[in-house]
Amino acid sequence: MSFSIETRKKNIEAVKTKQLDLLIIGGGITGAGVAIQASAAGMDTALIEMQDFSEGTSSRSTKLVHGGIRYLKNFDVEVVSDTVTERAVVQGIAPHIPKPAPMLLPIYDEDNSTFNMFSVKVAMDLYDQLAKVTGSNYANYTLTAEEVLKREPYLKKDGLLGGGVYLDFKNNDARLVIENIKQAAADGGMMLSRVKAIGFIYDQAGKIIGVKAKDLMTNETFDIKANLVINTSGPWADKVRQLDESRQVVPQLRPTKGIHLVIDKSRLSVPQPTYLDTGKADGRMFFVVPRENKTYFGTTDTDYKGDYLNPIIEQEDVDYLLDCINYRYPEANITLEDVESSWVGLRPLISTNSGSDYNGGDNGRITDASFERVVNVVTMYNQKIVDRNAVEEALGRLESVLSEGEDNPSAISRGSDLVREEDGLITLSGGKITDYRKMAEGAMKLIQELLETEFKKEFTLVDSKTYQVSGGKMDPQKVEETLAELVQIGVDKGLDQADAEYLADLYGTNVTQIFEKVDTFTAFPGLSLRESLSLDYAMDQEMTLTPADFLLRRTNHLLFMRNSLDQIKEPVIEAMANLFDWSEEEKNHYSMELNKAIDESDLVALKGETV
């Protein structure tokens, strides 16, 4: 079974005539999580995404499945327990994607430090118990200052007390999305990228019964009918809600922008992911992560009100991260010119509920002063001294323990929200990539109930804690052994070790489909056999429709393989143009689209301003 541009054409024709059980708007990690569970349950399911799958927030994370150890400083055990428990579930259902990567946490004798050497050991021991790794090879340990510097000699020496090492995981965010999408498609779901919801269809009672959609590749508009519609569009959730012009929609989200910068490891080499206080006394921490002969660092967290489709990296974003990296690694002297690539994304933060930001925000606890203020106002309200407005004002001014008030975007919740509105639209918003399966599971329970009570249709939900994604059909306890076996298959077919490892790491158990072609496949002009096999698979099995889809989201060429990108981009464009029979105009369009993405990643505009 293929999942290609031809699949897309067939699915568009099918959704025009079907009465779906469920239509999903948004093809990031949240929508993909709902899609896989709905399709596996046998629901007639379709998903529409106005860009490529994962093109928005879900390919622009810090690319870690992070456990949230900083919250153990305040003994916020429940949050960390939930996070590490769900992280283990994700590792079980997508075992080829999250990879163990022990995290180094240097400890400094500074004002407002997140941890000292005593508290970090207490936190790590508790963390290990919650993550169930006590006594294993991944159990935490502490390092002296000398031992930390032996690992990372460029770290700032002044004030360094030592460090801790604990288990965390690297992640390939875009691959996690596409593997969920592919499994949903394999289970009968109709997954459509570059199809935009432009309006709703209503019954006589004003309830939503479908969506007016537009194929952004052909400009054709058509209706999609569905019993239920769920909005999983991330930062666009409010904009989708506002498609219903018959009612006033109160915005729920406060998106924030985060950026990451990539440099060659020759400019700054770190042996493992490292998590540091910024040194700016702003209550934030940042990551420095090695990946594919590169080092990347981030993230920022600032309010965003610009173009959601095209967030940009600004000079102040870069200055902030360069200040952080050069303060902690003072001999590195990283400059804008060292930045080889970058990415920017929006977080769909909910402005009204409580929750936890694993990277430096609100743990849900309010300050003593805020608590006392609310108690006093409620008491006066009960005594009829003040009215309801006074109570609402006090509630609206709550300050969290970690918050600096409403001016601090890092204090906004990373919690999630599930709501069914008056018009029948279900909206699932907020959350973190680690929580996607759990969020989808909660939505599916509501969807199951609504389909039964309102449409007399009964479905049995799969156990989503064990239902593995495409490419992940392996024992989660034997990932390394399974990948080694897969690599050997590739080597036996004639690939060299490095190429076989690259493909197995990228595609998991699906790599056997690729290895089957090694004997007969002819490489595309200008591309190696490895890259040709990867591109062929991406077009035939991963609905890769543009060069940017392949080079940025199906693979990491644009972000972490920048050295070879200029040599392969034209051959990739030529291969896709030939297969898809693009006109010269279409070919130029996709070439310009790719070059624009490269220029934005390269920070050409900012570098030009500094010349």
From TrEMBL:
Q: Which UniProt keywords apply?
A: FAD, Flavoprotein, Glycerol metabolism, Membrane, Oxidoreductase, Transmembrane, Transmembrane helix
So where does this one cross the membrane? 20-40
In this chain the Alpha-glycerophosphate oxidase C-terminal domain maps to 465-587
* InterPro entries, sorted: DAO_C (IPR031656), DAO_C_sf (IPR038299), FAD-dep_OxRdtase (IPR006076), FAD/NAD-bd_sf (IPR036188), G3P_DH_FAD-dep (IPR000447)
Q: Does the keyword Methyltransferase apply?
A: no
Q: What class of enzyme is it?
A: oxidoreductase
CC cofactor: FAD
UniProt feature coiled coil, ranges:
none
Q: Which gene encodes it?
A: glpO
Q: Which GO terms describe its biological process?
A: glycerol metabolic process; glycerol-3-phosphate catabolic process
What's a Gene Ontology MF term here? glycerol-3-phosphate oxidase activity
Its protein name is Alpha-glycerophosphate oxidase
What family is reported? Belongs to the FAD-dependent glycerol-3-phosphate dehydrogenase family.
PANTHER family in the record = ANAEROBIC GLYCEROL-3-PHOSPHATE DEHYDROGENASE SUBUNIT A, GLYCEROL-3-PHOSPHATE DEHYDROGENASE
Quick check: keyword Transmembrane in the entry? Answer: yes
Xref: Pfam families: DAO (PF01266), DAO_C (PF16901)
Q: Where is the FAD dependent oxidoreductase domain?
A: 21-351
Name the source organism: Jeotgalibaca dankookensis
Organism lineage: Bacteria, Bacillati, Bacillota, Bacilli, Lactobacillales
Look up the domain of life of the source.
Answer: Bacteria
The protein's annotated catalytic reaction(s) are:
sn-glycerol 3-phosphate + O2 = dihydroxyacetone phosphate + H2O2
